[in-house]
Amino acid sequence: MKHLLFSVATGALVASSTVALAQAAGQPSAGAQPPAAPAPLGSAPRPADKGLQMTLPLLRQGNVYGDVSATVYMDGTVLFDRQSLIEHIAPLLSESGRIKFAAVLPGTPSVSVVDAERAGVTLIYDSSELQVRVDRIDGTMVAAQALGEAVRFSLPATTLEPETFSAYLNMIGDMRVTDFRDFEKPAMILQGAMRYRGVVLEFDGGYDQALTGGGGFYRRQARLVYDEYQKQRRWTAGDLQLNGLSITSGTLLGGIAVEKGRRTFTGSTPLVQLGGQQVLLDRDSTVDVIVDGQQVERFQLNSGTYDLSRLQAQYGGRNAQLYVTDVSGRRQITSFDSYFNPSDLVAGETEYGAALGFVPTDFRAQPIYGHSPALSAYYRRGISNRLLLGGAVQAGDDVQLGAIEIISTPRTIPGRFEFSSAISTGRGTGYSLRGAYSLQFGYGIQGKQLSVSADYRSRNFSTLSDAIGFGRFRTFTLTANYGQQLSERTSLVVGGNWFEREGLRGTKLAFVDVMHRASRFRLTGGVEYGKDVFGRSFGARIALVVPFGQKTRAEAGYNSRRDDARLTLTRSYDDTVGSFGYDIAARNSDGMASVDGSATYIGNRFYSRFTTISSGNGFSRIDDRQDSRLQIGTSIAMAGNSIAVGRPVSDSFLVAKAHEALKDKQVVVGQSVDDGKVEAQSGTWGPAMDGRLNSYNRQSIQYDLKNGTEGYDIGTGVHTVNPPYKSGYKLVVGSDANISAYGFLYYQGEKVSLLGGTISAVDDPDFEPQPFFTNSAGRFATQGLRPGKSYRVELRNPDMMFTIHVPADTKSLLQLGDVTARPATGTQE
Q1: In the chain, pLDDT over 70 holds for what percent of residues?
Q2: Which of 206, 511, 608, 732 sits in a 20 to 30 Å window from 792, CA-based?
Q3: CA 372 to CA 148: how far, in whole Å?
């Protein structure tokens, strides 16, 4: 807890549990005798020092292993009940370790920290947190544990639980204009979810007359979700996006589904991969093509289906990625490889999915389903740590498909082999084949990597997703690359790409790149040889990236074969209030010029993003066409009985407000509130709302009062959460138990020094009994009291008591002055 620290004129008094334990005395009388000299650590205390009987939680890497009985003495010495210690530490020891630990420990009823260390276990007593931590265990005594379990074992315990009922609604205004004069009718994106216990209803849609052709409202996705996270299983009903094998990729259906596997809970993304070179954009988006860390293309795309064939032909074989930012603020980085890269499975682990429903025949404003039912299912299993097998089926009126997948890392042959094949019927017989080989050897500056992949898809091959309207073409792709470190800062990449598709001109490309990373810049230079639409067969390229601080960087690049020059200036933004980012780029590519820019501002209750692009046939006609867009988004969320307004929610959220007794205080929430960077804060518009919690990901939330916590106890200032999918949390910061009382204690005319006892409530049912103590000057302090309530203080050796009455108009500190205690059997004061 954030304890209250204050001082009294005649000397400092720290109200914390550390002092409470160090001075919880057993002295028989007050004031006259000096405290006994500290006993050596681990030795038996002197008989006059009776100590304080306590139960202390035993912790190891964040997990609690019960409460150990102990006696805490005035000098900080701790003696553990021998039998209690052996019992609670047993789960951490092997069978032989338990025998050794019990044998080496002294046979006395109580044992010390030193005794435990001699027996092979190092214990640390934390007086401020009132707990005992197991710091180290002799390696010959510790219990065996699987590595995967070890990772989970070290995670901190959650300290805040989600509300039974929660809901949110994102509202994002979307305004578009062409040539700064032709305004489209404003649109509104609506995204939301409602969770009750374990069931989630989520919706993604909006209102857009241009998109719907005048109809207005539309639905992107609506579904019910129920997770069995411990079993890695999810049940869904409604508009579905089902995973699959790499060769069949994702499937869209309207129906019911069950999925199991680690990738099931990754959440929705703007880009859905549908197999071949086909993708679906859920929302209008800005799509950047990133090659070797540099932006080489930018597209402003409307929602819909797209073919990546040309981009695959241009950049295949290189370290290429797609960076997608949609109009609702979601961001996604995905491999440029159009095939989904599934997770590897360890021996015995399974991954599967099955869905039954109807296939969409169109996906413009919303999915439009046909009338014939369809089935899609896949199954993958780790046969061993070196072999993974998988299979898939799809069946509908027009398409029947079967597929297999094999991933192997043989003992006798170095490297990793992948093979997938599929055959389809219904619109003619078609097949698809995919093979890949990768090898990595050496690490650091000795590291080398080799990868080769080939894909073939016949003209008649079809999947259920092709019903949306994709054309079917015979395609062939072969990519290869080899990379190695030349030095600590310099690396070499050699690669090639061969792409063929009927109806398009084939492309062949080979390249060599050398990348050098210095402390102040990154330089890439290379040559390439190709036969494609650019005409020129040979060229060179160079790219320079210069950072200016942690957030801002400039990039410049030129490719002579493509006559493509580009210059960009970028400042990144984060999710803290007041963060601002921008991206400005100028490009001249084979006679076509463009200038584009974007700016993003993160407010406390909203976010805004503005994008614009101006293009023409050369820079002299750069203003031939301009397209601009502005999005402003906000959200309203409810957790329990608390409602808040904030930025759009991406998954789970937290609503935080000050207790009504602190109504004049502002709550701030974030990951680094100590640095002045907050993700949300309360104010005129109500509680703070942090909408950036990721489901099934253990994370910490820091909170504080904006103008400090002096005079208030707000707890630890941090909570650990592990949010379920689309869940909501409520946090009330502080309480009306914010009164601290202090004074001097007298008994029979003398100051009561170094005496311990307890304080309990007379008429405050929410008050938990606490230790009470006086220091060597007879001073005492206690906190967590409420206005208008009374509390009884009881002390021992000799037995005495007194009562603290807190006036109803007390603000934060109650000065009691000199207080006289009476015998416990006498009249209370």
Answers
A1: 84
A2: 732
A3: 44
